[in-house]
Structure formats: structure tokens, C-alpha cells
Amino acid sequence: MRKFKTESKKLLDLMINSIYTNREIFLRELISNASDAVDKLYFKSLTDKDIQLGKDELAIRVSFDKDARTVTVSDSGIGMTKDELDRNLGTIAHSDSLAFKMDNAEAQGEDVDIIGQFGVGFYSAFMVAKSVRVVSRAYGSDEAWAWESDGVEGYTVEAAERDGHGTDVILTLKDNAGDESYDTFLSEFGLKSLIKRYSNYVRYPVQMEVSKTREKPRPEDADDDYAPEYESYTELDTINSMIPIWKRSKSEVTEEEYHEFYKTDFHDFADPARTFGIHAEGALSYDALLFIPGRAPYDLYSKDFKKGLALYSSNVLIMEKCEELLPDHYNFVRGVVDSQDLTLNISRETLQHNSQLRAIAKKVEKKVTSELKKMRDNDREEYERFFENFGRGLEYGIYSSYGMLKDELAELLLFYSAKQEKLVTLDEYLAAMPEGQKAIYYAAGESIERLAKMPIVKTVLAKGYDVLLCTRDVDEFCFQSMMTYGAAAAGDGEDAPEQFELKNVASGDLDLASEEEKKEAEETAKENEGLFAALKEALGDAVTDVTVSSRLTDAPACITAAGPISLEMERIMAQMPD
Ligand code: ADP
Ligand code: MG
Asked: Between β-strands 439-444 and 467-470, what pairing exists: parallel, antiparallel or unpaired?
């Protein structure tokens, strides 16, 4: 028996138990290694005309034996010699694949996509296996060797048999000890789902013998009462879909295919409202495929909702939901980001440098904004549906950023216009404003119908000014954090756009009355001094004051809030949990 080089016992233990948060990634690591081995042989074949590779040789096989508790990953790749087994699997943190990638960096181009780099992935097998046997035959060699280890003391290498070049990695799983995940690893369904989750876009077929049933052929003399008989059989199926849809050119993919991909990968039954992508090249190259869902997930506004985009590196899933890639106000966006340039941390579960993520996130945010604007301008009906689903989040974004996100988000908002009796943007409100109007007026309450009946709304409308009728709970909070709004389009020029105050018609003095009306009100107040004093006394602490108003059209009286908080906001705040 040979000893691992380096402080291997400790290191291996550390590796196995603390690098990975998720045990099931062992399969991802072994499939990645198999893919690298096939890739290396494929690369060789590109430069060596004598190497003819059959289709079968480029496939990766996964199989299991429930009784023997083994899971096997096989490839017909480049294989390893006795020395290579010793060097590659006997030295922790030695990556031949990384060396290969470096050596061939220039020649590789698009044709090769080596995944390995840290020289630790293989050992993740020991998270689930009590022993690992690797049988390998290097390409061009006629001897096979078997490497075997229990992951504690060391390993052995001895002569073995293998038909053809390639490698079998055979794991004998640990005893269950009541842990159900081991049953998953020893089941067709479990392995299939792990392949699909982590290795769906590995560029070579990952195949499994899958059990199926079929109808037996109908006997020729079958009569009308013949009941069909079934038999089970197994068939080699390719489990992964290989070519990532986001890497295919847009003109080659049908809308149908995009929708199918969205629905299966993001578990939605409805088609997305919008599909769009980013292709970035440069120091940080990446592809992104993004979707705006057609409906809001039921848990969107709950604490359990997790935003994020799937993050892939070299076609292998790194994170299912990378939160850093999406701002909160676009938490509804689904999709994937794929980059070969990410500096991954050793577990390949996260990144070392968040600056890379930040750069991608910034671009994603910009792209979503421009896509929403396009939708708003070109497909209003669909945009209204979108806003119904997700608009609240945009408003919340403005409010929770204390208005900082106003410039980006305010022009995306829609409100019900009392005058035009339809949804309008703030820019449309401004565009329709009559000469002399100094503020944007809104009223907040439970329903459009009730708001439309408010005396003060009628008064403002009577002046020829429009009033936005706000029924979402965040509307008023959003407006309060914005304070003012100026036309977005005007901001593109040299001058800052003229800002208009956002005014709740129900709070404070709107200053709508003409000099004459004011005078009249003053007189009325004087004449009825006694009445107001009596009313005030009768209402006691319930009110701070009783005054004459010039805001009423045909109603005899109305209640207004004294402070900066409107009655509606007070109502919402009272409902909030402490
Ligand atoms: P990495 O993949 O990051 O290099 P691993 O620990 O996963 O690190 O693997 C270590 C090395 O073992 C690889 O670089 C590769 O040279 C070799 N290796 C692992 N699996 C195989 C395989 N199936 N076929 C050929 N070589 C392999
Ligand atoms: Mg590896």
C-alpha cells in the first residue's frame, strides 16, 4: 500500500466533510471528469487523423446496482496509465485537467470545454462512498489498472482488465443509516434527476439503462376479446439535453422551444410573457437567457420566495438560484447565466469574486429595464398584464430604496387615470396635463369606484386636472418616497426635466382655489364662527379642527388628514404586523 502524498488524511477528511454543502454533487463531479476525459480524447482526434472516434466512444454511462450498493460512472475517454492513476488520484489538489487546459489554451478554441481545475472533485465521491474503485485503460495502451481506496489510509494500484480505452469509477456506497438520500442514489429516478439537474448541458451524452414497458405484439389469431399484454424491458437512454438552448443562435430556436425550456426548467405551466438574452464578449464573456413569467408565482410576496438566476460554468450547474444576479425589484425574472470565465471557489458551488457577479447583474438589470420599456411601448395589453402581476414589486423597489430607484423604475409604473378612465404611465399623465397645473394629483383608497366618488377628486377633476386613483397598498408609500416626478424622456436632454410634486388630494391644502374663492371662504368662516366652534366641541378629540373648505363640489362635508400621513396610509400601517 502506498501513502497519499501531502497531509492527505487530514486534507481528505476536510475535503470530504467541509468543502461541499451538498453531497449529491459527487455525481456532477464524476460526470464532469468523464466529460473531460472524452474531451481530451476528442481533442487528440482533431490533430491526429489516425484516431477515428465512434459515436459510442463519446458517451458517458451511469449505472447502479441496488443490491451491491454500487454506482458506476464510465467513459471511453482518454483513460489513465498506471502512473497517471498514481499521480492524478493519489495527489489531492493535483489537476491534470487544468494542466491540459493551460497547455492547449490556444489550440482549443470552441472545440474543447474542459471543466476540471482544482483537482479535488474526484474525492467528493468519498462523501457517499465507503470505497472507490477506478478501473482505467489509457488510450493506445493494452494494459488496464485498478486504483482502489477507502478514502482513509491510502490506495492501491494493481493490474486489471478492461475492454478498450476509458475509465470506470465504481463507488460502493456507505450504509444508509436511515438516510434516504442513499436510496435516491441507488434508483433510476434519483440518478436521472441528478443528471438532469447538474449535468444537463454536459456536451456529451450521459446515458443510462432505463426500464420501460411496452405492449407485447398482438398474436395473429387474436379475437375481439383480446386484452393487450405488457412486458418490461430496458433501453439505453440519453438523459441530458447536451446543447444548452442559450448557446444556440436565436434564429435556430423556435419560440416553442424557448417556452418548453422555460416551463420545464423553471416549473411553470404558463408560457413566459417575454424571452430575451444577453451575449457578452470580452474580459468576462457570458451568455444569459432571461424570461419574464406570464403569471406571478403564488409565493412571490411571501418570505419563502427566493429570487435568482441559475448559474452555469462550462455547461455545469454551479448554483440553482444565484441571488446576486437579480435586484430585488426584478425578483420575478427567471433564467440562466453561463460563463466560462468565472473564478469559482473550490467546491464549485460559489464564486471567488463577487465583482464578476456584480458586473453581470448590472447588465441583467439594464436589459430587463429596456425589455420592460419595449413591452410598455409596443405591447400595452401585455404590459398591463405584466404590471398587474409584478408592478407592486417595482413600486416597492422605489419605496424601499427611499426613492433612489425612482429614475429607473418610475417610468415603468401604471396608474388608473380618473379622467381618461384607463391605466396611464406618469409620463402620459404629464403629457396630458393642462397649462397651469403644478402638481401630479392622486387619491389612495380601496377601490376605483369609491375613489372616483370622493368629493375632492371631483373638485380636482372639475378644475380640468387628472387624478390618479391608487388602490395598491404601496402606491402612496411609493409616491411619498418619490416626492416629485419629471418626464423621463425630457431627462435625456441637457436640462433636468421639470419636476412636479406628487400630491395626495386628501391631505393638506391643494391650493386650487382662486383668490375670489378664497375670499369667499374666509367670509363664510367668519359668518359661521359659532357653528364651527359648536361642531368642534361636539366632536371633541376626534378632530383637530373644523374649517371651511373650497374643495367640495356637491358634498356638504369631508374629512381630511391633518399630518403628512393620509387616512389611507394610516389604515395600512394599522394593519402591518409590529
Ligand atoms: P479536476 O477535475 O478538477 O482536475 P479531479 O479531482 O476531479 O480534479 O480529478 C483529478 C484528475 O484525475 C483530473 O485532472 C484527471 O486528470 C484525472 N481523472 C479523473 N477522472 C478521470 C477520468 N474519468 N478519466 C481520465 N482522467 C480522470
Ligand atoms: Mg473534476
From this structure: parallel
Q: Which of 465, 423, 473 is nearest to 444 (CA)?
A: 473
d(CA 511, CA 549): 11
Record the pTM. 0.74
Q: Quick one: three-class SS letters along 422-467?
A: EEECHHHHHHCCCCCCCEEEEEECCCHHHHHCCHHHHHHHHCCCCE
| C-beta separation of 286 from 247 below 8 A | no
**Parallel, antiparallel, or unpaired: how do β-strands 286-292 and 334-338 relate?**
antiparallel
Residue 229 vs residues 212, 213, 222, 232: alpha-carbon distances, Å: 14, 10, 12, 10
CA 351–ligand 2 middle distance (angstroms): 17
Ligand 1 atom showing the smallest separation from residue 89 Cα: 12
Res. 488 pLDDT band, cuts 50 70 90: confident
CA distances from 350 to 237, 306, 339, 342 (A): 31, 17, 13, 10
Say whether pLDDT at 490 is over 60: no
Rounded distance between C-alpha atoms, residue 168 and residue 272, angstroms: 42
The alpha carbon of 97 and the centre of ligand 2 are apart by a number of angstroms equal to: 8
User: Mutation test of ligand 1: which of 25, 28, 33, 84 has the most ligand atoms closer than 8 Å to its C-beta?
Assistant: 33
Dump pLDDT digits (tens) for 368-425.
999 999 999 999 999 999 999 999 999 999 999 988 899 899 999 999 999 999 999 9
User: Residue 135, annotated ligand binder?
Assistant: no
Q: What is the mean pLDDT of the chain?
A: 87
The three cell numbers of residue 183 are: 436510496
Is 323 labelled as part of a ligand binding site?
A: no
Sequence-separated contacts (24+) of 216-221 with Cβ below 8 Å: none
What separation in Å is there between the alpha carbon of 168 and the centre of ligand 1? 12
Q: Is the pLDDT of residue 495 over 80?
A: no
Helix, strand, coil % in the chain, rounded to nearest 5: 40, 20, 40
Q: What is the model's pLDDT at position 178?
A: 75
d(CA 237, CA 179): 28
CA angle at residue 296 from 334 to 288, to 5 degrees?
A: 10
Q: Kindly provide the residue ranges of all beta strands, DSSP E only, lying in 121-204, ordered along the sequence.
A: 129-137, 144-149, 154-160, 166-173
From the alpha carbon of 169, which atom of ligand 1 is closest? 23
Q: What is the pLDDT of residue 111?
A: 62
Give the residue, by CA position, lying nearest to ligand 1 atom 18: 33
Contact present, 482 and 488 (Cβ < 8 Å): no
Q: In terms of residues, how long is the chain?
A: 578
CB 173 within 8 A of CB 217: no
Q: Is 255 annotated as a binding residue?
A: no
User: What amino acid is encoded at 189 in this protein?
Assistant: F
**pLDDT, tens digit (0-9, with 9 covering 90-100), for 210-244:** 999 999 988 888 888 888 899 999 999 999 988 88
Is 393 among the annotated ligand-binding positions? Answer: no
